[in-house]
Amino acid sequence: MFIPLAVFSVQTNESIQITKVTDGDTVKGIVNGKEISIRLSGIDCYETSKRDRCYKQAYLNKMTVEDVIVKGKASKQILTDLLKSSNDITVQFTDIDTRYNRHVGIIYAGSLNVNKYMIDSGGCTDFEYKH
Predict the structure, then answer these.
(1) Gap between the Cα atoms of 123 and 5, Å rounded
(2) Does residue 108 form part of some domain?
(3) What was the pLDDT predicted at 4?
(4) Range of the structural domain that residue 83 is part of
């Protein structure tokens, strides 16, 4: 079920309870009693399975598909570990991705910008999201 962004504030951070880390740049979580999918804005991480995008990443980065998947799983684990270690997780919504029926935003673990942390930790790159 897709909850319109208008239900959430883009000015303030909303508390979120993470229910699933899908990959290094997408999570599911409960905000205001509703479970939603959130794409981390401004980043792109390697894929965790053989999809069209995985093959494209392999080609563009001169890597094997298997290497892309290994890096993608490592990014997912970094995000999982980070979010598990924080009791204060919030999200600031920035956009809506109607193509994949999800929200786009910046996640914070305390005062740490998780999106930036994922770039700094490797496995993710800057990405201007276009929908």
Answers:
(1) 28
(2) yes
(3) 67
(4) 5-119
| Surface-to-core class of residue 13, CB atoms within 10 Å of its CB (0-12 exposed, 13-18 middle, 19+ buried) | middle
Per-residue pLDDT 10s for the chain (131 aa) are 666 666 666 667 899 999 999 999 999 999 989 999 999 999 999 999 998 999 999 999 999 999 999 999 999 999 999 999 999 999 999 998 888 889 999 999 999 999 999 999 977 888 765 55
For tokens 């990443």, the residue is: 57
Per the domain annotation, does 13 fall within a domain?
A: yes
Strands 124-126 and 89-97: unpaired
Q: Number of structural domains, the chain?
A: 1
Residue 125 burial (10 A CB sphere; 0-12, 13-18, 19+): middle
CATH number of the domain at 20, please. Answer: 2.40.50.90
Beta bridge partners of 14: 91
Q: Would residue 124 count as lying in a domain?
A: no
Hey, how many other C-beta atoms are within 10 angstroms of the C-beta on 63?
16
Quote helix, strand, coil % in the chain, to nearest 5.
Answer: 30, 35, 35
